[in-house]
Input
Amino acid sequence: MQERKARYETMRRALRDALGDLNILAGNAVGPSDASWQDVAGTCAVNLEVLVSQLRQARIGNCEAAIVFPDPEECLREAEGETV
Output
């Protein structure tokens, strides 16, 4: 149960952060003033790699139970700073 919760939280954070970075790269949000677009692209890539890794682990059966995928709309609202 703990592993399942940890996996969900890892995916939720990675998805939230990747969506936030993509929002910045699309010009829909303002990023940190000291970060270049290359910095934002780099953090986005890392977050997407984390998400892909978690999904691959689930696909090959390295999970104790089926995963519940985080709601992308909820993650986007959270990335935009809205209360979820």
Notes: Residues 2-25 form the longest helix (24 residues).
